[in-house]
Amino acid sequence: MNYIITIASLLLFDGSFQTLPAVRSERLDNQIRAFQIRGSFQTLPAVRSERLEGTVVMYDAWMNLRTSQADFIVKLKTSDGKKYIRLRYSPHAFMLFSPLPKEMFSDGSVVWIFQAYSPRNPVERGACTGQIKRYLPGKDGLPVEVERFASVPGQESEIIPKPESLSCLIMEDWTLKEK
Q1: SS3 label, residue 143
Q2: In whole angstroms, what is the distance from residue 130 CA to residue 31 CA?
Q3: H/E/C letters for each residue in 14-70?
């Protein structure tokens, strides 16, 4: 801690960097490494973002209800109307800060325009590839695995591929499509 303060004071008052004795603690080295890792997410080169248009057909209701994250399936507007994609949203882990609108998961007829990109770091890749399982007590009291994804109202009859089989992108922005 004193080492960092000394460097800061040298930079602020002297305007130049002076070499200090190479005495650092392991704790300081770990803090510097942690800062470099956190800082690396902010300095990544620009990633090409894709514009997607479609309706939300399924979502992880538990995740949406209990966290600020979202994991959902979008039916893309295509000529044959049969293309689906999985989108992940996590404002804190992915450094995004806007809450998702409730109508995204309550009205399956609303058309959205999404900006999304391929996962670009271990946190984002893990969000797309991780297998989360949900369990509830069964009739005999033992845990029983339950389906994570629920249909958005108005999309119950839609036949959708398994979420794990779909391409997964990280959502960075969305807008409601004007009718």
Answers
A1: strand
A2: 28
A3: HCCCCCCCCCCCHHHHHHHHHHHHHHHHHCCCCCCCEEEEEEEEEEEHHHHHHCCCE
Same domain, 13 and 84: no
Over residues 46-94, the pLDDT tens digits come to: 557 899 999 999 998 878 777 778 899 999 998 877 899 999 987 665 5
113: nearest Cα among 169, 155, 54, 167:
54
Q: Please tell me whether residues 56 and 32 are part of one structural domain.
A: no
Amino acid at site 67:
T
Instruction: Verify that 97 and 25 share a domain, yes or no.
Output: no
Residue that the structure tokens 């800062």 belong to:
35
- From 17-21, 24-28, 134-138, 151-155, the region with the lowest mean pLDDT: 17-21
- Check: CB of residue 167 under 8 Å from CB of residue 85: yes
**Domain range holding 35?**
2-42
Residues near 67 by beta carbon (within 8 Å), at least 6 away in sequence: none
Indicate whether 55 and 38 sit together in one domain.
no
Query: In sequence order, what are the residues at sequence separation of 6 or more whose Cβ sits closer than 8 angstroms to the Cβ of residue 4?
Result: 28
* Residue 135 and residue 58 in one domain: yes
